[in-house]
Amino acid sequence: MLTLQNYEYTVGCICALPLEMAALSAMLDEVHQKPEWQYSHDNNNYKLGKIGSHNVAIVCLPAGVYGTTSATKIATQMLSSFPSIKFALMVGIGGGVPSAANDIRLGDVVVSKPKGSSSGVVQYDYGKAVKGELISGGVLDKPPQHLLTAIARLDAEHMTSGTNSISEYIAQMLHRFPSMTQFEYPGSENDQLFEAEYYHIGDSITCEGCNPDRHIPRPQRQSSQPRIFYGTIGSGNQVIKDGMMRDKLARQKEIICFEMEAAGLMDILPCLVIRGICDYADSHKNKLWQEYAAATAAAYAKELLNTVPGRPVSQNISELSDRAGSFRSNTTMVEDLNAPALPSKTFMIMNRLYPKEDISLASFITDRRYPDQDALIVASTPNQTLDKMAEITLEDGRDFSVTADKNFSEFIAIQTKSNASLKKAFSKLFLLPMFEVDGDMQVFAEESRMYTLRQPQTLFKRIYENPSTRSRLQSFCAKNKKIHFVVGFRTLINARFIGKETRSPQFSRLPPQMLGNPLYQTTGERVYAICYRKVNLKKLSSGDGALSADSDWKGFWDATRGHDNEDNRVEGFSVEIDEENEELVSSSDAWNFPSENGDEQWVGLS
């Protein structure tokens, strides 16, 4: 079996029951080895493999746990370990809503499809009933466009050919796995639809005691090939086992299928819901058709993935392979790439993401709001081609260190739920200023890194000994400019932002397509926070006591090259760098980020 890197998996498949996972796993064209690593707080157990051109990660909800909340947790954990996943398929069983317009039978497949204002999945309840009626809920995100175009193509092909590949794929599955006999077609004689108002008799799991006169007569199908229906799927935290309630909810929301997990996914990850019909969501429901319905849903998922074009992974796989071993420990929050000697750390979160090559360690910034403008760059790293004229080249491991976080995404997910100011600070990195996030948000990245100077005071001495650097700093001083020394910054690699909902309090007439539930992605390595030290630079004369100060953080140079002024006093400049930037530490918007080397403090940029 192949072993692939986590970043090579681009499709997530989520099941609620083991029998659903079994059916989908049996549809894999290739089976891969288990993941080489998992995020420390990811408790999922994955089945990995390939369908068509897609590397797929399959996961099942914990045994005995159902509902939208569980699905939300599963999806969030999966994204933390498989950050390249582009979309998810929710594959499993559901309760059908037969009608004159939709002659849904047991074993057929229902696929979520937007219609009008509906996204294709509607949350019909909040998990409680009032006076015997379920309270209706909200509308969720639409499936991604490339999945909608794929199901449109499949629908057209099935219309012209008059058939689909579901039975063929199930036959292949039964041939490869002879022990899966329970997934065979149960037969049309076991497909019984009763009147909605007629309730099941007794406690028997079969309908042998029910009155056959209350059957709804339906014409016999000429083929056992499952049919596929597209429409709205109702999702909630209550099992629907009442024909009258089923029909009432179906009329209100135009629902053709009921299930219990999809609503927990739609706002976390672009998702399409595929359900094999195992019962009619009435009191006569039983488990006879569950395995076969799971197989029909899995077979449709395979046919769909064979239709969706494969998409390349955004980061070079060979580069990620070099770091694979570093992720195998599930207990370490921060991976130490080259044994840093870290200074005290207060990171200022920026108002936007900056390409890493635009920000330089050991540079001097005059305006912290725009760290890429009017910066005095005196040092560069070997891969920063833009800084070829810098006086000093910083060597990785000697002059600066790099650490990789493992708890970044979870920290953001947890803290932003209760901390509005932190959520606002991170939203500004991805959204335009007029937008605000209303509800939960997630920030995922293939990796979060921290770059820090190892010996900032020693490096600063080397820098201010350079005549050209001294001249520029003196110029800043003469213009009364504030100067800040960059001693570290934090980055995200291929970051993805998922917001629950956006609103625009400032601009109410923005077009609808600019509102809704945002999902933004960036490519490459981007700087989101910078650690500064304030430079205190002032003009002095020989009578000032500061000239005799002896500190690693202080320096003095003769500005007159030996010429005395009228008072026979030598003039010069004193430079001092604050060990801790007090104006940042005292900020009201400050958050502690836990790391292996002690808590960091994050502050917002005012």
TrEMBL record:
What's an example Gene Ontology biological process for this entry?
nucleoside metabolic process
Source organism superkingdom: Eukaryota
Q: Which InterPro entries does the UniProt record give?
A: NLR-like, Nucleoside_phosphorylase_d, Nucleoside_phosphorylase_sf
Which residue range or ranges hold the Nucleoside phosphorylase domain?
10-302
Taken from the record, one Pfam family name reads PNP_UDP_1
Region of interest: Disordered: 584-606
The GO molecular function terms of this record are: catalytic activity
List the protein's name. Answer: Nucleoside phosphorylase domain-containing protein
